[in-house]
Design brief:
heterodimer; A: about 90 residues; alpha+beta; 3-stranded antiparallel β-sheet; 3 helices; about 25% strand; B: about 375 residues; alpha/beta; 9-stranded mixed β-sheet; globular
Chain lengths: ~90, ~375
């Protein structure tokens, strides 16, 4: 499925994040996938997704400009595919 | 950030390794002719169980997500299960490499009951005729029995790990079929002239024609076959293979040996690539972050003799260990450079009357068996 601003999702409970200068490493203990989160803003959003009712709410709460919504949705979609995020 | 920007960042090193190889013991029931760590006999200085736990505590604090355990044969250690259970309980996933000798029915069931555990069984031929001359008599049957036991215990998708040589390169399709038949995943890696491989590499390493064969096979199979990103020297042939196109030594990977010495990667067990020991002040963390060796490996490297070749960005000059143990300069072509630049250098070296090839700094091989036994 494709995420929209009104979708709700959260970090998968089996995923750990490790901060790095470029952003973070995300590791999924279940499927053993290692994913590079290549921007600190993406890391902030991913961490907060579970605390807000929707992706849109999270992006606003993290102070992300609306012009960046499309690129964030694309990144979050990819993270859903690799099961770093799960749709709630 | 683009993929190449990420690689640039990774080359500068991370605060902790992405993954780390830990050889638990030099003891081994086999004597493979290409053993990277020249294993055979146990080292008296081997880390104790408590010392191993302390290293794992440190790795957990560093958020190392998983470790690759090897040896020697790691299952020879009496505390093998204690160590892997401690690791997993501290959020460090384990993948371990084994020849399978100790995976009997009972151990297979115990392993199958654990989470966050991967097993890699080494096999270097699709039949005993191909495998056993490299890994030792009976080793093919040992590995297959271990695979049968894991399947019977419903372990799930374990891995079959093959070092590609000139003798098994034609069997890649058969290896894949064998892995499929077990519901396993195939992993193929590059032969390095490290450890006892120093003496066997000349006879085992794939020919230039076979390198092209490996490249095409990998392109056709994509991400369904694991490689540990070990074939990036082949990228000079054209399209890049999947994976990070870079040498991770001391930047994103490293090796801890059975006595706690920390090396840049599993293929360079030599004093020149030893960064420190886990017993040093500040422990593993200081070695990783501050050692002189690792700091220098994170500085921008020079293309050296490869600078004039248009393919350096594709192949990165190949593997540091392969160059070192064949006596080639580190800032020049890989001995298996697919454009033939390494072969020319090797030939010149071998023709020289004073060529000295570095030997591994430690050798735990068992004494050679004599054909004659003395009865008194």
């Amino acid at each position: 499925m494709t995420l929209t601003l009104s979708s709700a999702c959260a970090l998968h409970p089996q995923v750990a994040l490790r901060p790095e200068p470029f952003g973070a490493l995300a590791y999924h203990y279940g499927n053993r996938r290692l994913v590079f989160l290549k921007h600190p803003d993406v890391v902030r959003v991913v961490r907060e997704l579970g605390d807000h009712p929707s992706i849109g709410h999270t992006l606003r709460a993290c102070g992300i400009a609306t012009e960046r919504d499309a690129s964030f949705l694309q990144a979050l979609n990819q993270l859903t595919k690799s099961e770093i995020l799960r749709v709630c | 950030m683009s993929a190449s920007q990420l690689v640039t960042q990774l080359k500068r090193g991370l605060d902790a390794p992405i993954c780390l190889t830990w050889e638990l013991t030099y003891a081994c029931n086999l004597q493979c002719v290409h053993c990277l760590s020249s294993s055979g006999q146990r080292d008296d200085r081997e880390l104790s169980t408590q010392q191993a736990f302390a290293v794992l505590d440190e790795l957990r604090d560093l958020q190392v997500f998983y470790i690759n355990i090897g040896g020697g044969e790691p299952m020879i250690r009496r505390d093998f299960f204690d160590i892997i259970e401690y690791s997993i309980a501290h959020d460090i996933g384990v993948k371990f490499s084994t020849n399978g000798a100790f995976i009997d029915e009972k151990n297979a069931q115990r392993l199958a009951a654990m989470d966050y555990l991967d097993i890699q069984i080494s096999l270097d031929g699709i039949d005993a005729l191909t495998n056993d001359p490299v890994r030792g008599e009976g080793s093919y049957n040992i590995a297959r029995r271990a695979m049968d036991n894991l399947k019977a215990a419903n372990f799930g998708p374990f891995k079959i790990s093959v070092v590609v040589t000139r003798h098994n390169v034609d069997q890649l399709d058969e290896f894949k079929a064998l892995a499929d038949s077990y519901g396993a995943q195939l992993r193929i890696t590059r032969l390095r002239p490290s450890g006892r491989g120093v003496d066997s590499w000349n006879d085992l390493h794939p020919t230039n024609e076979q390198q092209v064969q490996i490249y095409n096979w990998l392109l056709a199979h994509g991400e369904n076959v694991l490689t540990g990103d070990s074939f990036f020297h082949l990228n000079a042939l054209g399209e890049a293979l999947p994976g990070l196109n870079m040498c991770g030594a001391g930047r994103v990977v490293c090796l801890i040996d059975p006595i706690g010495d920390v090396y840049a990667c599993p293929f360079v067990l030599h004093d020149q690539f030893k960064a420190g020991n886990v017993h040093d002040t500040g422990g593993f963390t200081s070695v990783w972050r501050d050692s002189e060796l690792f700091t220098s490996l994170r500085e921008p490297e020079s293309a050296g003799a490869c600078a004039s070749c248009g393919n350096y960005d594709s192949c990165q000059g190949g593997c540091m260990a392969a160059k070192f143990f064949t006596g080639l300069p580190l800032d020049g072509p890989d001995p298996e450079c697919v454009l033939g630049h390494g072969a020319d250098l090797l030939e010149a070296r071998q023709a020289s009357p004073v060529s000295i090839t570095p030997k591994p700094s430690k050798d735990h091989s068992k004494p050679a068996r004599s054909a004659l036994s003395v009865v008194s």
